[in-house]
């Protein structure tokens, strides 16, 4: 989901992610068991909760929950559950985007010039199975994350810190078992990390939901990797989306899984939780694709929070309604753009030719095509129609709340005449003469994303009657999978920060090895060089200069259609207590701004 990303970063970004394109990227797969029911062994004798009352929190959304395995959680749909089932070593303090607080670790020491961290772990903690939390569980968790490190997880930035590379052992032969075990090990009950070089963002990376500590004994018992040298190579890059742990999770969180089906997930308060017992005993997340049905349930009080469809719906249909509270003007710490894939895989290209019936796989490799699409997107209109006048055009896929964003750079301008000229110049005139048909995807149920694509379609098709833009609604998990495989021609792409540094955005969107590179398939040596230099220096002025260079070149090359900033807004039933600007921290939860255990209902 993204710099989770930790200063002015992912907190509000999570809301934007949810309302605009829901990571992630945030961020990513399909559960692999859509028609099955998944339960933990402890819940068979518990009564099924109703959908009302002070001890039940009901949330309705349009999208699925791809996974419950923290080792591959990299989207906000999954993260909102995983962060309540599992716990990390450290977390965020209140609504701060930068201050960290102890969670499963009680204290830590930094040594060896920032290349060694020693964590004292909390005692008296139990997993949902009843197993005690010990150092071996943390050791297993981080080693498992380093070993698997799939493209559908956020473990690349953990691996960068601990192994010096974001790749796994299948892609980087320098990774050995010895490197992994040296990077994270137990010294008695003290967890020790050793880094190849100092990383000022390391602690913040440990607060990311995907680094939640798993129950190692339980994981091995149900068929996960056994944690040994003899089998580690077999686990490298293994898809964990529908893993045994995804179906039968065991964390230390205040809630444990009761049941997960294709249409709903239920979690219940964990009786042996080490901290204060939650006041809300049961949480139900229901998949309701129809927006009208969600809004009706919300207004009637049958749901406490719903995916509303964004600011236009909240302002037009919900503000001022009895029983509904609105929290507004939440700072935007996410970044969104529409990617243009320069090497499309699969059948998304239609005829595969510039004959009006499709596009060649490298259609977007001509900069004039990309510039034409950028100039044809009306950002001011999008701000007015979708965001009700809130937000500003951006010049870079980096929140303006982050260091490194240069507000003096002029953002792209909406200009259909310029777009026309770009298309006339593209592919030696063939684009203009023959036309094209291109497919653009958005997350099914996301009204803001759908509206954005409709505005793009209208403007592109107005330029030349031979131009066709087909808008395709897809499940979130399908978009994630296709985007990672490079099969999407154009897709709404969003990122909420993983940790507090502009690199988390810039590397993600623009680096040839960045997480979203499969969505654009670009290798820009100039930008890669600037990114690597920015990663290696602590000179703030130089870093800002480098990010300005990257922003200017990325604008010139039109790698993305840039979406505007979008101040956050959220609606919830007034019976829900604990949501406020003083407590709201999107780094922790994209819908409530705080964990479920800190909420109550009247």
Report on this model:
It is a single chain. The protein has a five-stranded mixed beta sheet with strand order 8-9-10-1-11, with helices on one face. Strands 15-14-16-13-17 form a five-stranded mixed beta sheet. A four-stranded antiparallel beta sheet has the order 4-5-7-6. The longest helix is centred in the last third of the chain and has 18 residues, at 540-557. The chain is an alpha+beta fold. A hairpin with a 4-residue loop joins β4 (105-111) and β5. It has 21 helices and 20 strands. It is globular.
Strand content: 15-25%
Count of discrete alpha- or pi-helical segments spanning 4 or more residues: 21
Low-confidence stretches: 1-47
**Sheet/helix structural class:** alpha+beta
In angstroms, what is the radius of gyration? Answer: 23 Å
Largest sheet: 5 strands, mixed
Mean pLDDT: 89
- Termini Cα gap: 32 Å
Which word captures the global form? globular
State the total count of DSSP E strands: 20
Strand order of the largest sheet: 8-9-10-1-11
Q: Which percent range fits the helix content? A: 25-40%
Features:
20 strands; five-stranded mixed sheet; disordered N terminus; single chain
Task: Outline the fold blueprint.
Blueprint: H1 10-21, E1 56-61, H2 76-85, E2 90-92, E3 100-102, E4 105-111, E5 116-121, H3 135-148, H4 155-163, H5 177-183, E6 184-187, E7 190-194, H6 202-206, H7 216-221, H8 232-235, H9 244-247, E8 255-260, E9 264-269, E10 282-287, H10 291-300, E11 305-306, H11 311-318, E12 324-330, E13 335-340, H12 367-375, H13 379-387, H14 416-425, H15 430-434, E14 436-443, H16 447-463, E15 467-474, H17 476-485, E16 490-495, H18 503-510, H19 517-520, H20 525-536, H21 540-557, E17 560-562, E18 568-573, E19 576-577, E20 600-601
Parallel strand pairs: 1-10, 1-11, 14-15, 14-16
Antiparallel strand pairs: 2-3, 4-5, 5-7, 6-7, 8-9, 9-10, 12-18, 13-16, 13-17, 19-20
Helix pairs in contact: 12-14, 18-20, 20-21
């Amino acid at each position: 989901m993204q710099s989770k990303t930790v200063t002015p970063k992912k907190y509000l970004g999570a809301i934007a992610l949810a309302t605009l394109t829901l990571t992630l990227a945030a961020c990513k797969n399909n559960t692999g068991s859509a028609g099955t029911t998944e339960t933990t062994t402890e819940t068979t004798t518990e009564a099924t909760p109703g959908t009302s009352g002070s001890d039940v929190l009901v949330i309705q959304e349009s999208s699925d929950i791809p996974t419950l395995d923290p080792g591959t959680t990299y989207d906000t749909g999954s993260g909102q559950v995983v962060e309540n089932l599992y716990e990390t070593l450290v977390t965020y303090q209140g609504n701060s985007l930068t201050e960290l607080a102890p969670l499963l670790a009680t204290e830590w020491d930094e040594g060896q010039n920032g290349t060694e961290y020693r964590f004292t772990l909390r005692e008296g903690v139990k997993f949902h199975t009843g197993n005690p939390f010990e150092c071996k569980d943390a050791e297993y968790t981080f080693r498992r994350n380093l070993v698997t490190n799939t493209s559908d997880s956020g473990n690349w930035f953990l691996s960068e810190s601990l192994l010096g590379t974001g790749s796994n052992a299948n892609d980087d032969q320098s990774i050995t078992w010895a490197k992994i075990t040296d990077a994270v090990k137990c010294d008695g009950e003290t967890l020790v990390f050793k880094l190849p070089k100092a990383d000022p963002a390391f602690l913040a990376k440990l607060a990311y939901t995907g680094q939640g500590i798993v129950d190692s004994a339980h994981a091995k018992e149900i068929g996960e990797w056994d944690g040994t040298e003899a089998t580690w190579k077999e686990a490298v890059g293994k898809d964990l989306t529908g893993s045994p742990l995804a179906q039968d999770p065991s964390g230390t969180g205040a809630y444990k899984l009761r049941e997960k089906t294709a249409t709903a997930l239920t979690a219940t308060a964990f009786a042996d939780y080490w901290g204060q017992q939650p006041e809300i005993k049961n949480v139900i997340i229901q998949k309701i694709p129809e927006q009208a049905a969600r809004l009706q349930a919300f207004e009637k009080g049958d749901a406490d929070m719903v995916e509303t469809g964004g600011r236009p719906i909240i302002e037009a249909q919900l503000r001022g309604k009895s029983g509904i509270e609105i929290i507004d003007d939440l700072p935007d710490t996410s970044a969104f753009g529409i990617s243009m894939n320069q090497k499309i895989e699969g059948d998304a290209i239609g005829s595969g030719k510039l004959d009006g019936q499709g596009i060649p796989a490298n259609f977007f490799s001509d900069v004039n095509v990309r510039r034409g699409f950028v100039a044809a997107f009306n950002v001011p209109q999008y701000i007015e129609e979708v965001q009700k006048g809130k937000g500003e055009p951006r010049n870079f896929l980096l929140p303006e709340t982050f260091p490194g964003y240069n507000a003096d750079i002029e953002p792209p301008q909406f200009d259909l005449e310029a777009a026309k000229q770009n298309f006339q110049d593209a592919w030696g005139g063939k684009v203009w003469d023959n036309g094209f048909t291109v497919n653009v995807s958005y997350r099914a149920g996301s009204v803001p994303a759908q509206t954005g694509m409709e505005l793009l379609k209208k403007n592109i098709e107005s330029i030349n009657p031979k131009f066709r833009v087909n808008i395709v609604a897809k499940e979130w998990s399908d978009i994630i999978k296709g985007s990672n495989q490079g099969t999407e021609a154009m897709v709404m792409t969003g990122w909420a920060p993983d940790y507090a540094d502009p690199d988390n955005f810039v590397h993600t969107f623009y680096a040839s090895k960045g997480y979203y590179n499969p969505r654009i398939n670009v290798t820009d040596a100039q930008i890669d060089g600037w990114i690597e230099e920015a990663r290696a220096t602590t000179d703030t002025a130089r870093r800002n200069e480098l990010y300005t260079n990257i922003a200017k070149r990325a604008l010139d090359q039109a790698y993305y259609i840039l979406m505007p900033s979008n101040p956050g807004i959220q609606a919830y039933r007034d019976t829900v207590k604990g949501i406020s600007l003083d407590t709201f921290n999107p780094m922790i939860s994209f819908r409530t701004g705080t964990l479920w255990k800190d909420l109550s209902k009247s």
